[in-house]
Design a protein that fits this description.
By secondary structure, the protein is of the alpha+beta class. It has three helices and two strands, in the order αββαα. It has helices at 8-22, 49-56, 59-71; strands spanning 25-32, 40-46. This is Quinol monooxygenase YgiN.
Length: 92
């Protein structure tokens, strides 16, 4: 996602809030480009297709989606993929 100039911090804040509050993901990565802090990459691994659908149709997703869209300089690029290897983080 490319934020409007100077809105990268707010975009990161909203995306991070969505990932941590939804509970729909096993794990996620939010990354900002070193050369352009207004570009945010989000890689999210959902617990299941059902969890993904429930989140995407939730009031939280609707609220965040509207706020995020207003921050973007251009439509977001979305590429659906399925992970073939992902290890859980050992929290011990």
């Amino acid at each position: 996602m490319r934020a409007k100039p100077g809105f990268g911090d707010k975009l990161f804040e909203l995306a991070n809030a969505g990932m941590t509050k939804s509970g729909a993901s096993d794990r996620f990565i939010l990354a900002r480009e070193d050369g352009d802090p207004d570009i945010l990459w989000n890689v999210e691994v959902f617990k299941s297709d059902e969890a993904k659908g429930n989140y995407e149709n939730s009031p939280l997703a609707d609220k965040l989606r509207d706020e995020i869209i207003n921050l973007l300089a251009e439509p977001p690029m979305r590429i659906p993929v399925h992970p073939y290897a992902a290890l859980p983080i050992n929290e011990s």
